[in-house]
Every structure is written in structure tokens, then in C-alpha cells.
Amino acid sequence: MTRADELASALVALEQRLCLACAQAGRDRDEVVLIAVTKTHPISDVEALAALGVRDVGENRDQEAAPKALARPDLRWHFVGALQSNKAASVASYASVVHSVDRASLVRALAAGAVRAGRRVDVLLQVSLDGDSARAGAVAADLPALAEATAGADGLRLAGVMAVAPLGVEPARAFAQLAEVAARLRSDYPQAREISAGMSGDLEDAIAAGATYVRVGTALLG
Ligand SMILES: *Cc1c(COP(=O)(O)O)cnc(C)c1O
């Protein structure tokens, strides 16, 4: 089996999972966007997935994402990893959506980069679901200020929230908590409708809790 065949059958299987999860949640399949997380995989895999109709691609390191995005500017690039402020301008030059914004300094750096590049970048606020501010993600108490900074920043659009289910917490519980955070944010910022949640191991729980973006790596690419 060629790599392209392998990716094609993995995509069929994943699509079945997504359809079933949506049906069980009483949602339409088109309410959920699949992001293929291609980190550590070569651009040839991105090309093969694009040929199969995948339009949304995710990466977690600027150094790897930038050349891939340059090769395929027709795709929608999602930045899903920990982001340092000194990489923010580069990321803002190619990412359509940044899922991992958890502090005000990053908002400023992304906004400056987006303005310089003449682009508008969707921002998702990454939420820490175990309430530990030492981990990636903002704690709930810090979200209002972060949302206000993002909503008021040139070049950025506050688009919603993102989380990773913490180890040792049932994903269903974690994503229910994220859904509450998302609803609160949406009551102040109606445009902030996106919920980025769910990976290879827990995408069903995320879809049941209202995820609009799922970020899938290993179930698709191995
Ligand atoms: C790698 C990664 C994913 C994909 O994880 P899989 O378990 O391989 O599906 C999703 N989100 C983030 C933030 C990642 O870094």
C-alpha cells in the first residue's frame, strides 16, 4: 500500500468516526471542521491529504509550519502549539487560526505581526481545564481580560476557545467545563463561536460537548 492509499483509508475511517459522533450528538457533520495535525510528517503527507480534500491543516512549531505553509498557501493553516512571542509575527504571516493564545503579551505580538502582514488572524483563547496556571492555557479568571485585549486588537478576531483535556480527568467532564467557558465568552462576544477540542483519543467526547474544530494527528497520519 502506498502512503497515499494509507492516508486515504485512514481518512475514510476517521470520517466514519466523525459522522457517527455527530449523529450520536444530534449534530450535522458540517458543524465540525476536521483539522489534520501534520506535525513531524513531511509536506508530501500534506499534499496527499489536500488531494483527498482536506483543507484545514495544523502544526505546533513555527520552524516546521512556516515552510509547509509557504508551500501550500491555498490551505487553511492552524497553529495549535505553545507559542513564544518572538515567533508570533511569523505565525501571524501564514496562520488563519491560532488556537493557543493564553496571555496578553502574545495577543500584542500576534496583532503586530498580523497588521504588518496585512492579514486578519482568528484567535482562540486556550483554557487550562485543571485550573493550574503553570500549564498551557489561561485560567478562567484571566479570560475576560484576555478576551477584551483580543477583541480590541487590530488584525485579530476573537473566534472562540481551545483546550486539551488534562491527564487524569475524564475528557467528557473536561469538555463540558470548556463548553461552559465558551458559552460565557459568547454571551459577551457573540462572534466567538468556535470550540477547538478533541484529538485522536477523545474526539467523540469533544463533539458531544459542542466542538467545532477537532485536531487529529495520529488517527490520520499514524
Ligand atoms: C499533536 C496535537 C494534536 C493531535 O493529537 P493526536 O492525539 O495525535 O490526534 C492535537 N492538538 C494539539 C495541541 C497537538 O499538539
Short description:
Helices cover 46% and strands 18% of the residues.
Secondary-structure blueprint of this entry?
Elements: H1 3-24, E1 33-37, H2 43-51, E2 56-59, H3 62-71, E3 76-79, H4 85-94, E4 95-101, H5 104-117, E5 121-126, H6 143-151, E6 156-162, H7 171-188, E7 194-196, H8 203-208, E8 213-216, H9 218-221
Parallel strand pairs: 1-2, 1-8, 2-3, 3-4, 4-5, 5-6, 6-7
Bound molecules: pyridoxal-5'-phosphate.
Strand order of the largest sheet: 7-6-5-4-3-2-1-8
Return the string of H and E elements: HEHEHEHEHEHEHEHEH
Q: Structural class of the secondary structure composition?
A: alpha/beta
Tell me which oligomeric state these chains represent: single chain
Count of strand segments: 8
Gyration radius, in Å: 17 Å
Bound molecules: pyridoxal-5'-phosphate
Largest sheet: 8 strands, parallel
- Unreliable runs, pLDDT <50, ≥5 residues? none
**Tell me, what's the shape?**
globular
Please estimate the helix content.
Answer: 40-55%
> Count of DSSP helices?
9
Mean pLDDT: 97
Mind explaining what this structure looks like?
It is a single chain. β2, α3 and β3 form a beta-alpha-beta unit. The model has no long low-confidence stretch (mean pLDDT 97). The radius of gyration is 17 Å and the shape is globular. The protein is of the alpha/beta class and 222 residues long. The structure holds pyridoxal-5'-phosphate (PLP).
